[in-house]
Specification:
With about 150 residues, the protein is α+β, with helices and mostly antiparallel strands. Helices cover about 30% and strands about 25% of the residues. The chain contains four helices and five strands. Strands 1, 2, 3, 4 and 5 form a five-stranded antiparallel sheet that branches.
Length: about 150
């Protein structure tokens, strides 16, 4: 039968130090408020509740391919190599500098060399209005910016 041993003074100090460092990192990430610091920052896409009579805003990227089709870009690591949360967090920066969308096209091309390439991208926000907690109609799209992809 195993015997119990008490945690020694060095072991306690290590545990306290790890806890303090973790708390400092969490507070720093929360104060700075950036998802880039995850897991030591807020995951802002989960931090809100929508009232019954408000709107839900969904950010997406639409692409025109060299095959002439228009598709929604899969915003995940397997798709274009960038997560939707990153796009949502940086939407303001992308609007100011649409060339940031080039990274999305490059990520898609690198991960899917056998698929049609993106030749044009649009950053779009769809707004869905709720009335009494129910969707009151189709989403209203708003194009925030566009980018012609460099070859």
């Amino acid at each position: 039968m195993p015997t119990e041993r008490r945690l020694g003074r060095p072991g306690r100090w290590v545990r306290v130090a790890v806890a303090v460092i973790g708390i400092v990192l969490l507070v720093n990430g929360s104060v700075r408020g950036s998802d880039d610091l995850w897991p030591f920052g807020p995951m802002s896409q989960y931090s809100m509740v929508v009232a019954d009579d408000e709107s839900i805003v969904f950010t997406r990227i639409s692409a025109v391919t060299d095959a002439g089709t228009t598709v929604d870009v899969p915003l995940n690591i397997e798709g274009a190599g960038v997560a939707r949360a990153e796009i949502e967090a940086r939407a303001g920066e992308i609007v100011k500098d649409p060339s940031l969308l080039q990274q999305v096209a490059d990520g898609w091309a690198r991960k899917h060399p056998d698929q049609p390439k993106y030749v044009g991208l649009e950053l779009i926000q769809d707004t869905t209005t709720l009335v009494g907690g129910r969707v009151s109609g189709p989403p209203t799209p708003r194009v925030l910016t566009t980018w012609k992809v460099r070859p």
